[in-house]
Backbone:
């Protein structure tokens, strides 16, 4: 009797990712059903930070089209590796971004979720004008916990660099950028619903002046149901899809 061949590590990982993907998709479907929404209106962004390019390629083979990263140092080589492997995905930059990384990010990112200051919007606009053909899609990251050091543009007040309205105006006014909507991370250690309700209000207010800014990026592995209930069009899913990360990011 011959033993069946051991599955190659790649096959095992593919099967694991496929099972995780099926679970996440059924959670999104159930959340949409509960909210009376069409699942086609919710894009799942697979957040692959800390995981290798090979996982992105496997996910692309399973039908995942949108991939997120939060650090340029990791994302730039990974995007190059995935492209070299022949997989086509849309890259979403979801992490805090330093202005001196703008020139790198605009070369591979299709959409930047985390623009939270006029100065960053200006740096991206300048870099995109020099290094891209198509406009860069941008979401204004909204701070939901009132802690100005946690990132995100501020809902209240009229800070010339960091108010949501000023940041949105800077993005909308740049030919090389396209204002696509808003993004937020739920406050740490609190129920996500009030934050997501605030985000929905900010999104609705922004659409009065910017009717094409339709995207609402909210929800991660732990709170995607609440995000869908409050109108998220993009959920950013890391650990539920790829596994727990060994580092806290
Ligand atoms: C890591 C990360 C995610 C994914 O978080 P999970 O809890 O692993 O799903 C989503 N959004 C941002 C901004 C992240 O940095």
Residues:
């Amino acid at each position: 009797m011959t033993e069946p061949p051991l599955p190659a590590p790649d096959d095992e990982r593919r099967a694991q990712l496929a099972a995780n993907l099926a679970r996440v998709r059924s959670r999104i479907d159930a959340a949409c059903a509960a909210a009376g929404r069409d699942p086609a209106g919710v894009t799942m962004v697979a957040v692959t930070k800390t995981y290798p390019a090979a996982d992105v390629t496997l996910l692309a083979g399973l039908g995942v089209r949108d991939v997120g990263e939060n650090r340029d140092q990791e994302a730039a080589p990974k995007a190059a590796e995935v492209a070299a492997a022949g997989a086509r995905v849309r890259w979403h930059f979801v992490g805090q971004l330093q202005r001196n990384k703008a020139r790198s990010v605009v070369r591979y990112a299709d959409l930047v979720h985390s623009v939270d200051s006029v100065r960053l919007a200006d740096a991206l606009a300048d870099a995109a004008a020099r290094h891209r053909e198509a406009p860069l899609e941008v979401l204004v990251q909204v701070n939901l916990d009132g802690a100005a050091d946690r990132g995100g543009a501020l809902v209240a007040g009229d800070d010339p660099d960091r108010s949501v309205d000023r940041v949105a105006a800077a993005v909308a006014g740049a030919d090389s950028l396209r204002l696509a909507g808003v993004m937020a991370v739920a406050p740490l250690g609190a129920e996500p619903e009030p934050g997501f309700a605030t985000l929905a209000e900010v999104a609705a207010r922004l659409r009065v002046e910017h009717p094409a800014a339709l995207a609402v990026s909210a929800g991660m592995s732990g709170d995607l149901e609440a995000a869908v209930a409050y109108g998220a069009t993009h959920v950013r899913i890391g650990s539920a899809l790829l596994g727990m990360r060994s580092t806290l990011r």
About this structure: The pocket of pyridoxal-5'-phosphate is lined by residues 47, 49, 70, 94-95, 185, 220-222, 236-240 (CB under 6 Å).
